[in-house]
Write a structure and sequence with these properties.
By secondary structure, this protein is α+β, with helices and mostly antiparallel strands. The chain has four domains: 115 residues, Immunoglobulin-like (Sandwich); 69 residues; 98 residues, no CATH class; 129 residues, Glutaredoxin (3-Layer(aba) Sandwich). The chain has 14 helices and 16 strands. Strands 2, 3, 5, 6 and 7 form a five-stranded antiparallel β-sheet that branches. A five-stranded mixed β-sheet has the order 14-13-12-15-16. It has a four-stranded mixed β-sheet with strand order 4-1-8-9, with helices on one face. β8 and β9 form a beta hairpin. α2 runs parallel beside α4, α4 crosses α6 and α6 crosses α8. The radius of gyration is 29 Å and the shape is elongated.
């Protein structure tokens, strides 16, 4: 009986431990006198995202407490007046982890004063790979002639280190093993993509490069657990694709994606490539066929933000390709209306000024009956008011194309619509004529539409 009680108590303790994870702590000292702050980053889809920041005290000490840490890598960097150093330090955090660092400079030199076996082993790896990384950095003038022998020379030590990865934490063991391969591959590729006085041809590369630059090398998204994962995908894609065929403006995207065998990684590559464009028309022409790879909310947001940044809203620029369900269940997009002049009315059943425009809209529709004009009303009523919207449309005998946005949609956000009603006009090619057009009650609207026919 006594043994049973002790067992139940132990199980209860285990349950409490898993139900209430302990905070993790990163603390330490930064010796660089010009530094006045520290930044902490976590990882999102292979990139560093600022998680927290703090100032250094008079003795240049710092501390971060993470109440509910997600097990995995975090990165820390010193900062000067809010600007972070490019050389960050990778640490592993989990529930209850206590890490103390002694940071010597902004070049990545540090020591682990306190930490679990995971962080001590991670530190050992970063000390091993550090000199090779330095040779491939922008600040180093080493060329491939000196770098390639260093790559070959470190291979036995890397193999030995991988055999030493056997902590009690199986999740960490998998992560560090992947990290070793990823760091080596990214560093080896770095000498080929960084500006150098001379670059090798394929025949001059060590055999190691033939293994890491094969097409379909990356077929799993777990590489994105690394804060450098997205950059690694970018380096690999550029180098591996160039081995398959000559990269041109016409084939660049298709060829680059062809060497990746994971749809999430394809999405990561696409998002990174967004910054290559300065024209919304060119951007849409290239990326429309590949939007299926933008699978996460972050990728969709990047697409939205890029299109918004590229759009000037000036006459003649491409309009936002909205997509909303119609009152009969069909989906209508701006692209589906190509060939027609499009008048868009953003409105809601609760909006008094919107309702005042309805009779004038009906008059305008009747006057232009048979003309190649699409009258599109987009309701911004809340999702829960959809039936109310349907009843209102029916009761008012509203014509045209009735669409339901279900709240303040991406289209409103895209055009910075802060109030309704809002009328917009697009030409037969879906290009902007006006994103703040006259209302139907104004005499200027009808001549504007007629001028576009």
């Amino acid at each position: 009986m006594k043994k049973m009680i002790l067992l139940l108590a132990a199980l209860a303790g285990m349950k409490a431990t898993y139900a209430n994870p302990s905070p993790a702590m990163i603390s330490g000292n930064c010796a660089l006198k010009t530094a006045n702050g520290m930044k902490l980053y976590n990882v999102r889809e292979g990139r560093l995202v600022e998680f927290a920041s703090t100032t250094l005290d008079k003795e240049h000490n710092f501390a971060f407490a993470i109440p509910v840490p997600a097990a995995g890598y975090y990165y820390i960097a010193m900062s000067v007046d809010g600007k972070a150093s490019r050389n960050n330090i990778r640490v592993y955090l989990q529930s209850g982890e206590q890490v103390t660092l002694d940071i010597q400079d902004d070049k990545g030199h540090y020591s682990v004063v306190k930490g679990g076996e995971e962080n001590k082993l991670l530190y050992a790896w970063q000390q091993l790979i550090g000199p090779l990384k330095s040779k491939a950095s922008l600040n180093d003038t080493t060329t491939y002639r000196a770098f390639f022998p260093a790559v070959d020379a470190i291979q036995p030590a890397v193999a030995t280190f991988k055999k030493s990865i056997h902590t009690k934490n199986g999740t960490f063991n998998r992560l560090l093993t992947m990290t070793v391969d990823a760091d080596m591959e990214s560093t080896a590729m770095g000498i080929l993509v960084m500006p150098r006085s001379t670059h090798p041809d394929k025949k001059q590369m060590p055999a190691y490069y033939n293994t890491i630059l094969q097409p379909k090398r990356y077929c799993a998204a777990n590489i994105l657990e690394l804060g450098e994962g997205a950059d690694l995908v970018q380096r690999y894609t550029m180098l591996a694709a160039s081995r398959v065929d000559s990269i041109t403006l016409a084939n660049r995207v298709e060829l680059s994606l062809s060497v990746l065998c994971n749809d999430t990684l394809k999405g990561v590559w696409l998002v990174n490539d967004f910054r290559s464009y300065r024209s919304l028309e060119k951007f849409d022409a290239v990326y429309t066929p590949y939007q299926k790879y933008l699978m996460t909310d972050n990728m969709q947001k990047a697409l939205f933000d890029t299109r918004k940044a590229l759009s000037t809203f000036k006459k003649g620029t491409a309009g936002y390709n909205f997509s909303f369900p119609g009152i009969n269940g069909d989906t209508v997009t701006l692209a589906s209306l190509k060939g027609k002049v499009v008048l868009v009315d953003m409105w809601a059943t609760w909006c008094g000024p919107c309702k005042k425009e309805i009779p004038f809209m009906k008059e305008l529709e009747a006057a232009m009956h048979g003309k190649n004009v699409a009258f599109v009303s987009i309701s911004t009523d809340k999702a829960e008011d959809k039936e109310k919207w349907k009843a209102f449309v029916k009761a008012q005998n509203m014509g045209g194309i009735q669409l339901f946005a279900g709240g303040w949609s991406d289209m409103q956000k895209f055009y910075d619509v802060n109030g309704i009603p809002r009328f917009m006009v697009f030409d037969k090619q879906g290009n902007i004529v006006s994103v703040d057009a006259p209302r139907p009650s104004m005499p200027e609207l009808k001549p504007l539409l007629e001028s576009l026919l």
